[in-house]
Amino acid sequence: MSFTGLIVAAGSGLRAGPGGPKTLRAVAGRPVLRWSAEALLAAGARELVVAVSDETRDAAEAALAGLGAWRTVLGGATRALSVQAGLAAIDAPDDEPVLIHDAARPFLEARHVAELLSALESADGAVPALPVADTLKRARDERVEATVPRDGLFRAQTPQAFRVAQIRSAYAAWAGPDEPTDDAAVVERAGGRIALTAGDPRLMKLTYPEDFAMAELLAGAARIVRVGQGIDAHRFGPGDRLWLCGVEIAHDQGLVGHSDADAGLHALTDALLGAVGDGDIGQHFPPSDPQWRGASSDRFLRHAAERIAGRGGRILAVDVTLVCERPRIGPHRDAMRARIAEILDLPLDRISVKATTTEGMGFTGRGEGLLAQAVATVETPA
Ligand code: CTP
Ligand code: MG
Q1: pLDDT in tens, 328-357
Q2: 181 Cβ closer than 6 Å to some ligand 1 atom
Q3: Final residue of a domain: which of 221, 256, 291?
Q4: Are 130 and 136 in contact (CB under 8 A)?
């Protein structure tokens, strides 16, 4: 179902202490706002409207750079005003769902969104909520006045789902003088019915400085390790040098290929693309395209690394095996590892280059061609 995402990021984050506006601070290398925006887009948001403050607009736009459809609008002095500024800027049919989300809750997932949209079908609003687990005390001056029954009490989180026209008119009807503490409260006061979906500790709001340490832990858990493999073979032909793993080697034969025929880098490029399910080298650099004739294969490898980085991924380690009787690889192994480390911008100990023969058997054994095989491990967002 098509929906708009409204992210409020116009607060000043006073309780989060020093370190810059909390929604722009990095968690696992990405600004908190970007986590939220990426998640809503990945969950199918048609467009994002992001309420920002005057001071943070530029930094917020930089944090959103490269994502899909988003716009920023100027928020207000309170969260409710920021929400209303965002609602006014949404261009959507009256009955289209809008998901209103605190930028400061970076770990929402597509399943949260799916549950909210489905609950909204039979309600005027849907809210993820967690039952209160701790005992509740009412206290003044650090003295308990009462123990409050927690039966039936829930903690409301975001995103919260509504229909655009309905949440707009509920806000218009809000008489005050108090401030709503969430958007569902506004619809409730207007007489609307709010459904609860399963809340999630991962939807925690980053409020205090110590919440950022917890966020780093959760961010780590939100990543998975994937493995890709690649194979390439090239035929030996006339020549006096060949390229292998980015290193030029003098030899009494060359390797035949459309590009520089560096089977090692080609296998490695395929392994990296394979680890993120991003096709293969032939798809990205068709051999039929004359611009890749004689191309230096470090370009292919760098391209694969950029594709991984573009998805928020990180290469952990790569392992290349070259299969040939000749040339001897041993004397060049360190140069090959160093060159791959340089192209991928990785420490040397993350790079392995190995070699073996096939004891005279098969096409490599007969010296007809050279085979390269590679495995890459890559960490990506889950
Ligand atoms: N928010 C907003 N406009 C405001 C106030 C808050 O868009 N005038 C946003 C915040 O950026 C945040 C969300 O509403 O994403 C939840 O608010 P809160 O956690 O209270 O954030 P801040 O108001 O920024 O923090 P603090 O109250 O500690 O100053
Ligand atoms: Mg606040």
Answers
A1: 999 999 999 999 999 999 999 999 999 999
A2: no
A3: 221
A4: no
